[in-house]
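Protein entry
_____________
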Amino acid sequence: MNFIAHECVQKHLTEQWMGGIDTTTSTWKILSSIIFFPLVSWLIDVDKQDGEDETPNDMGRKVTTSERFATFYCSPVLKFWLYLFAYSLFLCFFSYSLMVRWKPNSLTGPDGVTLLWVVAILLEDLYQMYMTKPKALSIFRFCTDLLSSFNAFAFIKVFAFLLYFAGFVVRVAVPHDDDDEYPLNFRWARMLLSIDICLFFIRGMELSFLNSHMGPKLTMIYKMIVDFLLFVGIIFISLVAYGVAVQALLYPLADPSWSLLRNILYMPYWQIYGELFLDDFDGPAAIRHEPLAIILLAAYLLFTNILLLNLLIAIFNNTYERVANEADSLWKFQRYLMVTTFKLKTIVPPPFNWVEIIVRIVLSVCCGDEVDDGQSSEMEMKKRRADEIIEAKRLEGRCMEIYAGRVRDSE
């Protein structure tokens, strides 16, 4: 991680991120060229030395218009902005289709567009998994490597797809009464899809890792959530212990029912935030006046609101100070992962990426890119190592130039 956080590596990542475009090109020029593509010829400067050595014959040659357009539309930075616009539009369609009234036995236009979009995003993720994993691995080895690289955002992606398809099936495939305006399956489908759209919004936050301000903050939030989940167990034990005791004291004549489980958790949870329900303890509406319940309430609030919550704040403060020192390195590592991800993404974002993915897979199969035996796998590995050595030499040269410049400045 410290190696990736080095200035030279980050400079190389910036060059890879721009994909041949001059690294000094401002964001407004890129956005203007996306909105009105003829501006590429005037606003976008192409670095001819990116990805290949410049020969003497190329010294005086100007970049042609076709090369400028090809470099611009194949760059990861363009893929990022197109993917961001498309994903924002997808969230708008999904939100609209979820908030409007559903008609039995029919799907509206936004519903169909949302379904197509989700399938296209799933296809994009599967294609990236196919491209990043060696094709000669067995299924068992592939699954093992996949589980080893599983993180929080990967879990959110998988769970979001499962919830969407489950909600869609419940809405469409489950039988219901056509005369009912809001049948039971619609209610369950809305519940599933309401949770699902929250996960898709959180998934979009992954794009913020490329921002130097939001990236470290998201890293801190993730670390704090991990600490909070460990702390929830302590709060849950005290909450259940107090809830059972108060329920037994205030409602000794309660009949057996599932509502007992709700009553155990409902009142103690909201009392943490200041909703004390004092009328149920010692007010006119109290079913039974029990002085011990008041004493338990005072002890519970003292333990949770003063001791546990302040301890949680102290833990968060410690986590913030600990992560703040390494947040920059963590963010730069996340930036490296995002750059490599967008280098593999299709030029056309979902839901229009079907054709490009199919063409890439067909070309991969027809051109013999798939590994059939150990010899081809070894040749591919040797070629990859040779490319890495060449890239390392270029990186070493740039590092020497930076070091020499610093030495001259110090003199």
The chain is about 70% helix and 0% strand. The radius of gyration is 29 Å. Confidence is low (pLDDT under 50) at residues 49-57, 369-379.
